[in-house]
Design goal:
Elements lengths: L1 H16 L2 E7 L10 E4 L5 E3 L5 E5 L8 E5 L6 E4 H6 L3 E3 L17 E7 L5 E7 L8 E7 L5 E15 L3 E11 L2 E7 L5 E5 L8 E5 L5 E3 L3 E7 L5 E8 L6 E6 L5 E4 L2 E2 L1 E8 L1
Parallel strand pairs: 1-7
Antiparallel strand pairs: 1-4, 2-3, 2-5, 5-6, 8-22, 9-18, 10-17, 10-19, 11-15, 11-16, 11-18, 11-22, 12-13, 12-14, 12-17, 18-21, 19-20
Protein name: Carboxypeptidase-like regulatory domain-containing protein
Organism: Kaistella montana
Length: 276
Amino acid sequence: MKKILVLLTLSIFTINFSQLIVGKIINKAENPIQSARVGIENTEIGDLTDENGNFQIDFSNIDKNANLKVYVSEFILYEIKVNDFIKSNREIILRERAINIEPVSINPKKYKYKNFGTSNAKTNYCGYDSEKKDRLFNEYAIKVENKKHLKVKTINVNIVNFEVNGSATLIFDIQNASNGFPDDKKSLTNETLKLTINKNDIKNNKVSLDISDKNIWTNEDFFVLVRVEESLNGKLYFGGNIFAFSKNTYYRNYFGEWKKYSTGEPSINVDVQIEK
């Protein structure tokens, strides 16, 4: 009888104090959205949706007035109070985000090609190891200071260590800044930028993603972001310049606050077409 009472007490305790809640992310057509990043703002708590659009988060020790955020490049950033989400049917509908792309007539005489960022670095700097699950959701960024009209054409990354079983997928984003840091609400892309690679794709420690057909234009400071898809099985490390004292590395985990540390920059760079 005592054992039954103990088990009953533990069950009640678990029900009262565990709030592992399942939610679902869909679009207007009610199709599930896979690989949506769902998390609590300014924390490192979150999940990615599966192929059915489902995610789960334990809300037990989370401030119910905090914001739950859902981010996918091609959709408008979604935010809802945790308490409101818990009381809802827990199905979130995302709206597609449309970026007005104005046709641009480029006069070759008025534009030139340049490269911004750090390149050709061979020093192991930062990256991912599937055995260290807490780091799989790290995201890194570099800042490009700019005041001219330019088009981003190619994203380049130096990879100095690739010990991966099979392939790895890199996910990129390009965002304008708010208060000196990247801002999810100011993404310049209207689709998820992905590059799937294997060892043979890395030439001279470099991989590139051509985005010249995406019409990404800006005339202000912007950030180039990169993270790895959580399906990574192995190790992938970017090169970087640890002696770049005038540079900064920007990083976050999930929807944690963006942070930066000085005297270094990961080897991420972009080829652009910029006004002379």
